[in-house]
TrEMBL record:
InterPro entries: ATP_synth_F0_asu, ATP_synth_F0_asu_AS, ATP_synth_F0_asu_bact/mt, F0_ATP_A_sf. It is a multi-pass membrane protein. Signal peptide: none annotated. It comes from Harpadon nehereus (Bombay duck fish). SUPFAM superfamilies: F1F0 ATP synthase subunit A. GO terms for cellular component: mitochondrial inner membrane; proton-transporting ATP synthase complex. The gene is ATP6. This is ATP synthase subunit a. The chain crosses the membrane at residues 69-89, 101-118, 138-159, 171-199, 205-223. Its main location: mitochondrion.
Length: 227
């Protein structure tokens, strides 16, 4: 039984063909496309309002040089948000529970912000490795610590997203299994467990949204240091 709980995180395949590519493509198909009409449906209006508010809040602290990343970060946010939400549906696969995928997203974006900082303002970028007013004996130690913390950033991005979604899916499956087992023996307890499962599902919907936002928000903070 313990091994079955982790089967949901295995990449599905059909006739030996991995279906993770289909899982990564499906969110783009579900997003509503802009229309040249003046009057649009409510879903498209809500989607446009959400994207505009997200872009405004994310790039308001950045100088105009960082606004070039608006389309890329907004697309990444919608992509992660769609993957996380679709993964909460029954009999679906959540690609963002795979550490390899999250690291594949975190490392290139983090590396791009570092390269931009080293290219545009190398003095300021290297100055982040040594806080101002550091005593002379502590300079080598602090440089090593700040360098390690710099390289830990993409690892923290990928592990945070993976751990939060994996823990949520495991909790949902554990409580659902408990409710199913308790139903014939203790119906009252099973009903209370089902209510707890419903509340946990609502919490996981919020976690799916928040984790996608936090992932992109931290990338924007890294970008803010280097532009």
């Amino acid at each position: 039984m313990a091994l079955n709980f982790f089967d949901q995180f295995m990449s599905p395949s059909l006739m030996g063909i991995p279906l993770i590519g289909l899982a990564l493509t499906l969110p783009w198909v579900l997003l509503a496309s802009p229309t040249p009409r003046w009057i649009t449906n409510r879903f498209l209006t809500l989607q446009g309002w959400f994207i505009n508010r997200f872009t405004y809040q994310l790039f308001q602290p950045l100088n105009p040089g960082g606004h070039k990343w608006a389309l890329l970060f907004t697309s990444l946010m919608m992509f992660l948000f769609s993957l996380n939400m679709l993964g909460l549906l029954p009999y679906t696969f959540t690609p963002t529970t795979q550490l390899s995928l999250n690291m594949g997203l975190a490392v290139p974006f983090w590396l791009a912000t570092v390269i931009i900082g080293m290219r545009n303002q190398p003095t300021i970028a290297l100055g982040h490795l040594l806080p101002e007013g550091t005593p002379t004996p502590l300079i080598p130690v602090l440089i090593i610590i700040e360098t390690i913390s710099l390289f830990i950033r993409p690892i923290a991005l990928g592990v945070r997203l993976t751990a939060n979604l994996t823990a949520g899916h495991l909790l949902i499956q554990l409580i659902a299994t408990a409710a199913f087992v308790l139903l014939p023996m203790m119906p009252t307890v099973a009903i209370l467990t089902a209510i707890l499962l419903f509340l946990l599902t609502l919490l996981e919907v919020a976690v799916a949204m928040i984790q996608a936002y936090v992932f992109v928000l931290l990338l924007s903070l890294y970008l803010q240091e280097n532009v």
